[in-house]
Structure formats: C-alpha cells, structure tokens
Amino acid sequence: MKSTSVLACALAAAGTASAETIGEINGNRFLSPFDGKKVTNVTGVVTAKGPSGVWLRSLETTTDERVSDGIYVYGSALAKNTSITTGDVIVVDGTVSEYRSSAAYLPLTEITLPTVRAILERNRTFAPIVLGTKRSPPTRQLSGLDSGNAFAVPNNQSLITVVNPVLEPSKYGLDFWESLVGEYVTIKNPRAVGRPNRYGDTWVVGDWHTTGDNKRAGLTISSNDANPEAILITTPLDGTKNRADGKLGDELEDITGIVSQGFGFYQIQPLTKLTVTSSLEPAVSGATKLISNGKCSGITVGGYNIENFSPKDVDHVTAVATHIVEYLKTPDLLILQEVQDNNGATNDGTVDSGLTLAALADAIADLSNVVYNYTYVNPIDGENGGAPGGNIRNAYLYRPNVLQLQGGSTAMAGDAVTANEVLKGPKLKYNPGLIDPNNAAWLDSRKPLVAAWELVGSQGKPNKPWWDVLGLWDLFGPGKSKGKTLFTVNVHFTSKGGSSSLHGDARPPVNGGVEQRIAQATVAGEFISEILDRDNNALVLTVGDFNEYGFAAPVETFAKVSRLRDLDEVAKIPVTERYSYIYDMNTQELDHAFVSKQLGKGAKFEHLHVNTWLAYNDQVSDHDPSVAKFDIC
Questions:
Q1: Is residue 575 a contact partner of residue 222, using CB atoms and an 8 Å limit?
Q2: Angle CA 608–606–484, to nearest 5
Q3: For the domain that residue 210 is a member of, what is the CATH number?
Q4: CB 147 within 8 A of CB 34
C-alpha cells in the first residue's frame, strides 16, 4: 500500500481522511471505519449509473473476500452528468455515510456530497463477479449473532450496528451479501423463489447450492435454515419495471446488476428488467385425493383461511366456493378463518356473520348441489383484530347429512364473553363455544372456536354380516357404533405484525407477537388437555392459522401443552413440502393441523397449493387450504 502523505495526515486530523482504496472505506465489517469522515482522491471505474448516483469499483482489487471493492456514490447531479458514463475512471472526494431509512434496517455504506476531481480514463473494461463460481452464498445461517437459530426466543438480543462483527462470508448469509455491497455481479440461471411484490421485486437464487428446495423450486423455511442464499431483485437501473405477474419457480434470464442494501434487505439492482423464460406447470397442485365416504371410517375435514371473506365481494365468494368444490371436494367439515361480518369492513357496529356464511353455503350449493350448514360465535365489535369493521372470526361449515353438533337440536352455543367448559363424558358445555375469551392472551385477536361433532343417523353403521343369524351383531358388533365424538378447535392466533426483516439489524430478528402467541398456545392447549384428561382416547383435532412456523416457540408450546401431534408428522409429509404461504424468499407453513393420538391412527393429510403457486393477482387467498381424512369409528 502507498505511504500516506503529510497532507493526508493533516486532513485526517481535521476530520478528513485520504482513503487509498474503496476496499479500505468498506473495511471487513458491516460499518465503515470511515463513517462520518471526509475522504479524498477515491478512484474507481463507473460500473453502473442510477437515478440518484453511480457505483464505482476500485482499480486496486483486494484478495480479501470479506472486503467489497465496490461502493455507491450518492449524488443526483453526478447521476445526471451525461459526461460521465460507465467505463469512466473517475476520482472523487466526499463524505462516508452509513445510510438507512429505518433504525430497524442495516445501513448502506456510501459516499455522499461527492465532488469529481478528474476523469482519468474512458471505456475501461470491467467484468461482473459471477456468483456461484468462486463466490457462493451460505445456505443456512444468516448471522453469527443469531447463535445458530434465527427464530430463537427471546429475540432482539443484539444489534449488528452495535456489535459490528468482522464479516465471515463463508458462514453467514448477511456477511456474504455485505461483503459484496456495491459490487457489479451476475446471476446465472436464476429462478424465482417467491412471487413479485407490488413493485415487481422478486426473490431469486442462481446457479449455486441451495437447501430447503421443494418440488415447486421454492425454498421452504425450516428449523435452523432461513435460506440466506436467496437475494431480492429490485427496480431496474434503466428505468423499466419488472413484471408483477411472476410466479414461484419461474425461470429467468441471467441477471446482472449491483449488490445493495435497502428497505431492510440485501438486494441486487438489475441493469434491466427481469425476463421470464419459462413457468412451471401445472398452474396449481390440483384437487385433493382424500374423498369422504360419508361414514365414520372416512370423514374429511378441510382447513382454509379465506382472507377477509365478505359477502359484499361477490367475485371472492364465488372463487372461494369454487376452491371448496373443485379442489377440497366439499369435505364433511370446513374449518374456516377470517370470516367477516354481514357487511364486511363497514365499521357500523354490525357483528353477526349469518349472511356471510349463508352466501358461501349458497355459492357452494349452486356449484355442486352440496348443502352446508354453518355455526359460529359472534365477537364483540372491534375486539377480534383484522380489518377495521370486519370483525373477522373463526367459523364452521358442515354437511348436515353426515355431521351434526353433538347433542343435535339440544346443542347450546356460547357467546363472546362466556368461557366454554369440558364436562364429564367428555362433552362441551357450549357447542360451539369460545375458549376463555376474556383471557388477556386474546387481546385484539380471534378466540378459538371449539365444537364437538357426531355422525348423523346410521352413517357410521356398517352392513350386517351374512352369517349373523341370531342378530348378535346388532347388539355387540361395531354396527352398534355410529362413530365417536370428534372435538375440533378452530384457531387463528395473533399476527406477526411488528416483525423485523430477516436481514435486519436486530438479531435474532424480531418475531412480532411471539409472546402473545405463546400465551394463546398455552391457553388453547390447556383446554384441549382437559378433554384428554377426561378421555385419553378422545378424538381431538386442531386446525387453523397459527401465524407461526411449526418449529417456533408458540407452535412447540401448543404441541407440548395440548399433547397433540403435528398431522404433518403423523402423515409423514416431507419437511420441504410443508407450506401454505409465501413471504419474502420463503415458502412457509403458518397453517397447521394437530391430532390426538387416537385420531392420528390411519389419518391422511394433504396441502393444496392452489394459491401459493399463482401470481399475486390470481390468488383467491394468501393462504393455501388443506384436507385431512380420518377414521372416527
């Protein structure tokens, strides 16, 4: 390295530094050692221009993979200067800054208030760093500050900007992308591992090793694997727009652009818009193979968060009904979340949802001639969270020729403020009823709706065997049974609102609402445990939107307290195929089903990917439904 001049030392003493290279400005940590200082004679080749600045690559590249040789020079005048173009070697002065638009984000090292001292050369050639050749991202851990688990509780135990650790790009995903910030790179053979957001930003992986791959070419999040190998492709630098109708698994043309940091994520700003070369078929995963036989030996149950379902949105009503008929195959019982009141998100004190559920039942009947009845408990106005005025709640649709509420016409429903109870039998005091609705765990959140079901008439009675001359089969055989009681708990835990980005400053990342979900899991689990205390062989099913991963503390707490088993595990669904939702780079499972030991015997389960595989505007809900089949004889 060249020796520092006397003039440079004098400038440093006055708050100015003479940085020998861009690599020195970046350093080998997240924050620049020159933050807040003026730098002079910074020399580099212009690799790209954007609307608000240019990117430079040092002429003296380092062999230290912890250090980036690229940097953003922020200045709209510089960006608009038509006498400077890519391939120019320029010398600039300016001030080093760590910029972020929110304290929750990681900052971007940049040079601000730039002054161009000279243009030394024109048309200098430069080549992109091809990711996946000598430089490939790690595939599991995001940060060394996560202590091996980005989903650990408690979270937000440290900040990257406070610790400012030395980068370890071969171990941690955030370190890898930070070591490339400002660099000019290419991704070969990219594929989309998420759908575009409203700006057309799309998460991709390239020609490098990945983990968590599912059959649709997405990356399924799992314990200790947050998929740091994915990178967000954002707004093109040439002023064009990325398409907003992309889909999971789309194959794309090679991408060349600049690695950057903004709005909470590491990203690549491409030179030109993304181009889809092919999309996967079929468009959706198809209909369930789990069909009811109408008897106790083959009862089907569907679970579906139908996303702010309102009777005012006629198209949405028809679309949800079509899913239930064509893909869920009109199961005997439907366990639904996000059912709005009779006038949707009109905030006028309306809480009843009879018209809402009737609209859905009628739409199903029009499509299939299958009749559904429904049951629910109205919330107190404004106390269930969700869209203001919508009063979302959990509800059941059931086929009355197959199932009825235990007790039939004598079943007595609960209300919004009365806690349900487990009585001797076991049976429920209120059917349906809410679990401890006044508990603080349910503040501004949906209260679990618990119900008990029995078969109608002789649906569970098999034919009398030909050899039963004395009629003993009617007295002692299995024909005497019409099936056992099926207890169901319909949950919709509080949202993950307030969570920080997986690429954010807080480590482990903030998991919004996690403590409340743990409390909700405990309350719901204790109620279920009471049923099993009454009868260890009781048939208990919990289905719903837990708003949490199966390996995170709230769901683990629920399983432990309730003594139920994850139906994915029971049905041996591969870990990578356990998803019902897409968020950022991850396919993930927020919707779960849990069963008692007895109910799990011979149980079957399917996730129906009728939304997650589609473009954003084509999905009926932001969640996928599921179907399960049980023997309740």
A1: yes
A2: 130
A3: 2.40.50
A4: no
Omega within 30 of 0 (cis) for the link into 282? yes
Give the pLDDT of residue 469: 52
- Using DSSP's 3-state secondary structure scheme, residue 499 falls into coil
Tokens of 261: 């940091």
Task: Supply the range of the domain harboring residue 504.
Answer: 299-630
pLDDT tens string 64-110: 999 999 999 999 999 999 999 999 999 999 999 999 999 999 999 99
Residues 6+ apart with CB under 8 A from 236: 242, 257, 269, 270, 271, 272, 273, 274
CB atoms within 10 A of CB 407: 13
Q: Which two tokens stand for residue 366?
A: 């029009």
| pLDDT tens string 46-59 | 999 999 999 999 99
- In 3D space, the residue among 72, 17, 3 whose CA is nearest the CA of residue 44 turns out to be 72
Instruction: Say which amino acid occupies 406.
Output: Q
- As a whole number of angstroms, the distance between CA 501 and CA 105 comes to 8
* Number of structural domains the chain divides into: 3
Position 433 scores a pLDDT of 98
Q: Mark 134-153 as b/e (b = at least 16 C-beta within 10 Å).
A: ebbbbbbbbbbbbeeebbbb
Domain holding 405: CATH number?
3.60.10.10
Same domain, 458 and 570: yes
**Which helix (H) or strand (E) covers residue 393, if one does?**
strand 393-398
In which band, very low, low, confident or very high, does the pLDDT at 17 lie, cut at 50, 70 and 90?
A: low
**How many CB atoms are located within 10 Å of the residue 256 CB?**
17
> Does 1 fall in a domain?
no
The whole-model pTM stands at 0.92
